[in-house]
Amino acid sequence: MISAHGYAAHAADKPLTPFAFERREPGPRDVQMSVLYCGICHSDLHQVRGDWEPMIPSLYPMVPGHEIVGRVTKVGARVAKFKIGDTVGVGCMVNSCRTCPACRNGLEQYCESGATMTYNGRERDSGDPTFGGYSDVLVTNEDFVVRIPDNLDLKAVAPLLCAGITTYSPLRHWKAGPGVRVGIIGLGGLGHMGIKFARAFGAEVTLLTTSPSKVHDAERLGAHATLVTRDAAVFTKNAGKFDLLFNTIPTGHDVNPYLQLLAQDGVMILVGALTALTPPPLGANLLFNRRSLVGSIIGGIRETQEMLDFCGAHTIMCDVEVIPLQNVNAAFERLAKGDVHYRFVIDMESLRRESARAA
Ligand SMILES: NC(=O)c1ccc[n+]([C@@H]2O[C@H](COP(=O)([O-])OP(=O)(O)OC[C@H]3O[C@@H](n4cnc5c(N)ncnc54)[C@H](OP(=O)(O)O)[C@@H]3O)[C@@H](O)[C@H]2O)c1
Ligand SMILES: [Zn+2]
Ligand SMILES: [Zn+2]
Q1: What distance in Å separates the CA atoms of residue 205 and residue 196, rounded to the nearest whole number?
Q2: Ligand 1 centroid to 136 CA: how many Å?
């Protein structure tokens, strides 16, 4: 076994603390990597705090982290795609059944038997808990490892592995592009990448935010316009003005005012709210104007590589605030308040420095 060090949550209401654990020795198709950077996704906060119980149980101890960039330190005998020294990424999934129609279509996130998640999941063979990227070392099957373009800043790449693909995939699927009026709801980790991708795809992009303080940044990130949604009149004034809404609000909420912003055949994509939408969507807000309310999770491995290559070609990266792992609890508090600009990324050197000092 390999000894690993990271930070773990031990209960929903307790801070994360240093945690030593073991990972498997790399098997023939495994890649072992030294973790360089790991982004902090709002899903980490939800799962640490048990927000998705009982639908998605929180398994403790939990080492979160699924926006991982690492450097390969060892490869199994049958690994074909990677070699020692390569810069690689791991996102939200580390395995899937590989045989169901979804897996065969490169949509492992919709695997019929459930994809194996990078943390807060269980390995398919052993049933052992999976531990994520708030740690120094990772061992992952090469089919779930992606290549990082060499022209990008690695700390600003890490959040592409979740926030990037979660926005890229549905914006592609629902055809954000020239002539399409796209509204991005919420300017956090997902929202800021939503603006960048929708803009790169040629769409007309508006940010819908609850924070007047973020208006200036939205334009810098590529939005053509911004609407501050604290004022209810904004919804009536802009009724029917959007073709596509990308909704990143992290909790159940009233989607009705947003649905009314959609034009005929407009689509609102939910990616944030897993829990009840209250009050529920009103039928009339869907029937009239033939609107759709849809959802999406992350993206498959093939599309994740496509997204990274697109980012390499267009020099697209995340706006990040780099922190040492020791500050993770303070970052969680700020994330809970929406005080994020626009993704926290952990520099894993901080852990190595601490270990070196202790030795
Ligand atoms: N579907 C997937 O595959 C997937 C993948 C990753 C994450 N997620 C989920 O997506 C959600 C967003 O993740 P994130 O990492 O982008 O979070 P984040 O960085 O915290 O950003 C969320 C933003 O939503 C806005 N917001 C927060 N609470 C709100 C409320 N009650 N009403 C209206 N707006 C609110 C805030 O933006 P403003 O200040 O601009 O209003 C906030 O910055 C989380 O629930 C996360 O678990 C889903
Ligand atoms: Zn995530
Ligand atoms: Zn499958």
Answers
A1: 9
A2: 27
